[in-house]
Design brief:
Number of strands: 32
Strand order of the largest sheet: 1-3-2
Largest sheet: 3 strands, mixed
Strand content: 25-35%
Shape: flat
Oligomer: single chain
Radius of gyration: 47 Å
Length: 574
């Protein structure tokens, strides 16, 4: 009984093993990319082993057991082979491009049909145009890479601010150390006769926080020893800074001539006084010739392929920067422009900027304005939208565009598109309509109507007396119409200006004006009043209603007739 139970339990576990093995096999086929062959074989052997184990349990036949043992041996061998990279030795990985010249990598990328995106960043440690980092791991199989983003060094940031210490009293070696540590690239050194020890810094033009490329002049002591002559050293192959520094340190008069040569740019290629010859300090002048690098004649870059340009760049120790744009006529991959023309003479290390074509942009079939916007954004194209009414095209639909489907699009010209605002709406005549009726009419037509208080009129209060868009005009759905509502017929009043209202203000014109404003606002609504003050021949004090008020045209006084909607003036004595 115990054996039967044990057998059943074993069968259950063997079925579970088969399910897990099959699941792993399917997963290996679909999802695992690295070492895929190993994982497929490994998982298949596991499935086969689980099946043989189950069959052996169910039939108790010895050959299933033998096959199971053979499968286990195969499984073990497969794992041993994988441990020594037998399954992956033929897979070529991307590789690490750190500290490699971008020109060399561009050549490699063209050969392997990989798109390179270059992002330039300053670096104090990586040389200019050498690669700092990449966005894809170096162990990724090369076959899986189609685009690679590279961070390329622009060299040190010479606009970066650094703290320049005070070196006065220090030696030239201290200055050279600071120059190298802080990457200062605009140092001028002048030597003068002095009682201070030779090579002691006497003056320094700037100290404190400055950009690396700020010009800083150091005056350094030649000492007071009179030296009449000195033996010339070999300056050839020294850089211009070190060569000129030696000449200055020894008080030698010199000039610099620049010429093209095969030597590294900035190095001395010749000197007018030979090595070991004696220089008379007071009389002799040394001329040093400094290399400008190779003299390079620019070919017709526009007739070359990108690969040919890259090869030419590499051969001549130049630098290259690619830019891609869409073009209406230049085929994909061809060169559109370069920053140097055929026949130009350039130096080694010059940056060549090449613009290549990304091909033509074809106008697509667009079903909606949003489709057009999304497509244009993908190509960084500008879309100029204008709106018009249309009986056939619904609101938001495209009536017309400056291109038809399949047309070649000029990326430098905005795409013009006319968008439908729906059927045109004829503005009704709202004159003498009530506010409620106007609102109902506007809503039914798809218009937005706003209201404001108009003037007095013979039209009933609250009804329309004017509108800012003429009746019969054609507008689009959603147009706002501003409508003035009547205050109703204007009332006429006989003005009463009781003396008691202003009696307390006699002697103060401002007090009288303020009292009258309050009184008139309360008793004559809709009538506007203004005030002015004038000298009186009748009243000795300020604050009275002037004797001429009501007599001068446009002025009123007690007993005058006034009408709503009009403005009247009252004169007060001053």
């Amino acid at each position: 009984m115990k054996n039967k139970n044990s057998s059943k339990i074993a069968i259950v576990f063997e079925i579970i093993l088969i399910i897990i093995s099959v699941g792993y096999f399917i997963y290996s086929l679909i999802f695992i990319k690295d070492s895929q062959l190993f994982n497929i074989i490994n998982s298949f052997l596991l499935v086969f082993f689980a099946v043989m184990l189950l069959l052996n349990q169910l039939t108790n036949k010895s050959y299933y057991k033998i096959i199971s043992i053979i499968v286990v041996i195969g499984f073990a061998l497969c794992n041993v082979l994988n441990s020594v990279s037998a399954f992956t030795k033929n897979i070529i990985s991307l590789g690490n491009f750190s500290n490699k010249n971008i020109n060399d990598v561009l050549v490699w990328a063209k050969e392997n049909n990989i798109e390179i995106e270059q992002i330039y960043e300053y670096s104090d440690n990586i040389k200019e145009f050498f690669i700092i980092s990449q966005d894809i791991d170096s162990n990724i199989p090369l076959k899986d890479v189609t685009k690679l983003k590279l961070i390329v060094s622009s060299g040190p940031n010479y606009n970066k601010e650094v703290i320049i210490p005070n070196l006065v009293g220090s030696k030239i070696d201290d200055l050279l150390k600071i120059k190298n540590e802080l990457l200062l690239n605009n140092i001028e050194i002048n030597y003068v006769k002095s009682d201070l020890e030779k090579d002691t810094i006497i003056e320094q033009s700037l100290k404190g926080q400055y950009q690396r490329n700020t010009k800083i002049t150091f005056t350094i002591s030649l000492g007071n020893e009179v030296i009449e002559e000195i033996t010339m050293i070999d300056l050839v192959d020294k850089n211009i800074f070190d060569a000129s520094l030696w000449l200055k340190q020894n008080g030698i008069n010199f000039d610099v001539i620049y010429e093209f040569s095969d030597k590294t740019k900035g190095t001395v290629i010749n000197q007018s006084i030979k090595t070991n010859d004696v220089i008379k300090i007071a009389n002799d002048k040394v001329s040093i010739t400094v290399s400008k690098g190779q003299s390079i004649t620019v070919p017709n870059l526009l007739n070359m392929s990108s690969n040919d340009v890259i090869n030419w760049i590499s051969e001549n120790n130049l630098k290259i920067e690619f830019n891609e744009i869409y073009h209406t006529t230049v085929p994909l991959g061809n060169i559109i422009s370069a920053n140097y023309n055929e026949g130009d003479i350039i130096e080694d290390g010059t940056l060549i900027k090449i613009t290549t074509s990304k091909g033509q942009i074809k106008f697509p079939k667009v079903d909606s304005l949003q489709d057009l916007r999304n497509w244009a954004n993908g190509y960084n194209l500008e879309v100029e939208e204008q709106y018009a009414t249309n009986n056939d095209v619904g609101v938001g639909g495209i009536i017309s565009a400056s291109y038809n489907e399949g047309d070649v699009v000029d990326p430098n010209t905005p795409i013009s598109v006319t968008i439908s605002t729906g059927r045109p709406i004829t503005v009704p005549n709202f004159y003498n309509m009530s506010k409620n009726d106007i609102n109902y009419k506007c809503q039914s037509l798809g218009l937005i109507c706003s209201f404001y208080e108009g003037g007095y009129s013979n039209i009933q209060s609250g009804n329309a007396i004017s509108q800012n868009v003429s009746a019969g005009a054609t507008v689009t759905k959603g147009k706002t119409i501003s409508i003035a509502l009547s205050k109703g017929p204007a009332k006429t009043f006989t003005l009463k200006l009781p003396q008691a209202t202003i009696s307390s203000c006699i002697g103060d014109a401002s007090c009288t004006i303020n009292k009258l404003k309050s009184y008139l606002d309360n008793n004559y609504p809709g009538v506007s009043f203004t005030f002015e003050t004038a000298s009186s021949s009748t009243f000795n004090n300020a604050g009275f209603i002037h004797e001429n008020s009501g007599k001068v045209n446009g002025t009123v006084t007690d007993g005058s007739v006034v009408t709503q909607g009009n403005t009247y003036k009252i004169i007060i004595t001053k």
